[in-house]
Amino acid sequence: MGALAQNQSDTYYSKTVESPLGPIVLVADDRALHILEFSNEDRADFETARHQKRTGAPIVAGTNPILEQAAQELSDYFAGKLSSFDTPIKMWGTDFQRGVWQALLTIPMAVTWSYKELAIAVNNPPGVRAVAQANGANQLAIIVPCHRVIQSDGKLGGYGGQLWRKQWLLDHEKKHFAAEAGQLL
Fold this sequence. Notes:
Elements: E1 12-17, E2 24-28, E3 33-38, H1 42-55, E4 59-61, H2 65-78, H3 95-104, E5 113-114, H4 115-121, H5 128-136, E6 149-150, H6 163-184
Parallel strand pairs: 1-4, 5-6
Antiparallel strand pairs: 1-2, 2-3
């Protein structure tokens, strides 16, 4: 699980990395990764523009040690060799959203929770819809594993990166990390 970073920077760097799911946009400062989104979705453009507006700092093409670490960890994850991320992350959102995202970080690879289970984990059992919205507002796909949350009936539900990617990520984790997840339970 990524470490949480504090503060904000004057400059953010953006790098696009290739993956089996298509290009992924990474945005980081010198302390933390702030955005990990699939780049062929309008969402990546939306999140980077929103981040730039929120911070008032430029996002420039380039790299730094945080982006290199995130890129390497993603490569290892997709190769089935990495079961937890150590890249420092910064989560931008309301207290409620950050609480939901913190709960997501506790879901082991190859394990799924229902939106109801996630609502219970954040001490808001009647707030399933609010939890689902917070889950969907996650700006750090894969590292903050919103893809591991499904409907109570076992169906996938929504996913900002498209359902086929959610299914691919769940299948990938089951294939490579299910034995490890079983040892954790």
